[in-house]
Amino acid sequence: MDIIFDELIDSYLATNVGTVSNFLSVALSAHLADNITALYAADLLLSAGTGNNKLINHDKLVRSDKIYWLDRIHNDAYENIFFDLMDNFVSHLNRTCFAGITGYEFHYTLYEKGAFYKRHLDNFKQNGTRAFSMIMYLNSEVDGGDLRIYQGTSSRDISPNAGKSVFFKSNELEHEVLITHLPRMSITGWLKIVG
């Protein structure tokens, strides 16, 4: 995995937006997508909001996705494989780049047909602990739902194909999720510097 980790980091260093196509295996992507489908069927996904836990706002004109927070306490076999992968990536990032990451948080994200998330930054004004944003896509079929990242006067669109990961500084790059025409599934989260 170190080669894949290095490819993600090197592309970030070159363009401020790291991407790699095979961060998650095909099998793991499929299992995690199945988890989202089961959570959705059981009505366990929650409408996502903007802001932190104290100042949350649910505005469907800004953001219309649904989420479910991941936690090792769930003891799901595939989520635990994902967490092990993230532990290895954070260790590699800290060892090779002296990033100082001390934690992370991730959630499943589902954009139903027609859903979107308007242009935003991932860092809270009241809490700057999010250092890097990461998205790992789970879709085997894609129609819309591209991630648009703004860099100065230009923008870049990234398609949400299964296994792909995107990595960038949380407080630097505004981005949005364009309208999706098929359900769009991912794991989204942040590498954090706490204390």
Show the helix and strand layout.
Layout: H1 2-15, E1 18-20, H2 26-41, E2 46-47, E3 66-69, H3 77-97, E4 103-111, E5 117-120, E6 130-137, E7 147-151, E8 154-158, E9 165-169, E10 175-177, E11 184-192
Antiparallel strand pairs: 1-9, 2-3, 3-4, 4-11, 5-10, 6-9, 6-11, 7-8, 7-10
Order of helices and strands: HEHEEHEEEEEEEE
Structural class: alpha+beta
Share of residues in helices: 25-40%
In order across it, which strands form the biggest sheet?
Answer: 1-9-6-11-4-3-2
Strand content: 25-35%
Oligomer: single chain
* Average predicted confidence as pLDDT: 91
Number of helical stretches of at least 4 residues:
3
Largest sheet: 7 strands, antiparallel
What are the segments in which pLDDT stays under 50 over at least 5 consecutive residues? 54-58
Shape category: globular
Compute the separation of the termini in Å: 29 Å
